[in-house]
Every structure is written in C-alpha cells, then in structure tokens.
Write a structure and sequence with these properties.
The chain contains ten helices and eight strands. It is an alpha/beta fold. The strands form two sheets. It has a six-stranded parallel β-sheet with strand order 1-2-3-4-5-6. The protein has a two-stranded antiparallel ribbon with strand order 7-8. Helix 3 packs parallel to helix 5. The model has no long low-confidence stretch (mean pLDDT 89).
C-alpha cells in the first residue's frame, strides 16, 4: 500500500480517499499511511463509522492536518443505532458520541480547523423516522456537514425490504424538511435539497437512459484499489 501511495503521488495524484469494504481504522497502519500522504501535501478523506476514533487517533489526525472525516452513523439515537447495526453492543453509540465530542473539543482548544467532520446516513426503513435526530446529532458533535443518501437495493430482492416502505415516504419528506431548517439555523451545511429531489424522482430515475445522453466520466476522474491490488475504475464494477 505504501508503494502504491508513493507511485500515485509521483504520478501527480493529489486527492486520496481511505475507505473500503469495512472499517478503515481497523488497519494497523492506517495512521502511518494517511500521514505518509499528508506529508506530501495531498488532500485526504476517510470514510469511517467513527467508533475507533478514540483520543489517540483523534489527536494524531489533528496533528497531521487530516482533511475530512465522513462518519456514517445511520442514526441519531442509541435505539435506532442498535436497530441499524446488527449485533452492536448497547454502549457503542455512546462511544461514537464521546469520540466525536472529543474531536470537536480538541480542535477548539487547539484552534484547529481540521479534520472537518461530516455525518452521513443512508435512509432505510429502520431509520426513516430518525432523520431529524440525525441532524441534531450532527450539530451536537460539531459536524460541518450532514449528508442524507437514498438507499439503492441494486435490484436485489433480498435488499428490497431494507428500503423505506411506501407508508414511510411522507414521514421521510417531512423529516428531511425539518432537518434542513434545523441545520440551516445552526450553520451546518447539508444536501437535503438534493435528497428531496432524488427521493421524489426515485421511481422514475433511469440512469441507463441518462448515460445514453451524458457519458459517465467517473473512470477518468477516480479509481479504486482494493487490498489485493485489484484496480476498479467504477464503484460498481467489482
């Protein structure tokens, strides 16, 4: 991985996203690899569930000037967190909250602006009634942005039941609007307008037809390298 990072840096890559099919901070060398990139002046973002962002990790990220943490919580309360994280211990949400509070407090104490924090949630049936609480949680932990994404079952009938039920649609729309007003009042950026637009068009959105008009340029802008060294030029071409 270190050799791949060095090669990409030498080739001119200046934006790196540490992510994967799991929690990035379980990698024993995650901080060392992130620091390797930051020392070369590159921008770095990590997708994480936030539960491993303890005090030493938060301190290290602040010290290296890490840019952006995108924490997917899927919930704004402990009860909903338990429903959206099968097998999670009851205290895990509290640990997440404490980790993010500490990050906010240390940044304030050190007058550090980074890492910036975004709180993200994917709207599914178990959290469809918790979206306003998610917005409140984002503001509480000092997030600069709240991200709401629609769930895509990718045509898998086994995943279809996870999507919000038709009877939840009105509640989702109402809570998204309330969340937008709440976040606006506290100066927290969000993508609610996009989420509302996508939610309203979900049944009629045909991306295949879209790409017949506007080609997909994703492969020219980004690529994914997995832990086995395989390279993918699309997030869905695995």
């Amino acid at each position: 991985v270190a050799a791949a990072l060095d090669a990409l840096l030498a080739a001119g890559t200046r934006r790196f996203q540490f992510s994967g099919n799991g929690e990035v901070f379980t990698h024993p060398d995650a901080l060392r690899l992130m620091d390797r990139v930051k020392r070369r002046g590159a921008y770095v973002l990590a997708n994480t569930n936030g539960t491993l962002l303890d005090r030493p990790v938060a301190d290290a990220l602040i010290a290296m000037g890490f840019d952006d943490l995108r924490v997917t919580t899927m919930a704004g309360t402990a009860d909903v967190y338990a429903r959206t994280h099968a097998g999670a211990r009851p205290d895990l949400f509290q640990r997440l909250r404490e980790n993010l509070r500490y990050l906010r407090e240390r940044k304030a104490a050190l007058k550090a602006r980074r890492p910036r924090l975004s709180v993200a949630t994917v709207i599914i049936a178990p959290n469809a009634e918790d979206l306003l609480n998610t917005a409140r949680f984002a503001a509480e932990v000092g997030a600069c942005q709240a991200i709401f994404r629609l769930f895509d079952d990718v045509g898998d009938p086994g995943l279809a039941p996870i999507a919000p039920a038709p009877g939840q649609a009105d509640g989702v729309l109402r809570q998204l609007r309330e969340a937008a007003a709440y976040l606006d009042a506290r100066g927290v950026r969000h993508n609610v307008s996009n989420a509302l637009d996508a939610f309203g068009r979900e049944q009629n959105l045909d991306t295949t037809a879209l790409y017949r008009v506007i080609p997909c340029y994703y492969g020219w802008l980004s690529m994914r390298v997995d832990v086995l060294g395989e390279v993918y030029f699309c997030c869905r071409c695995g």
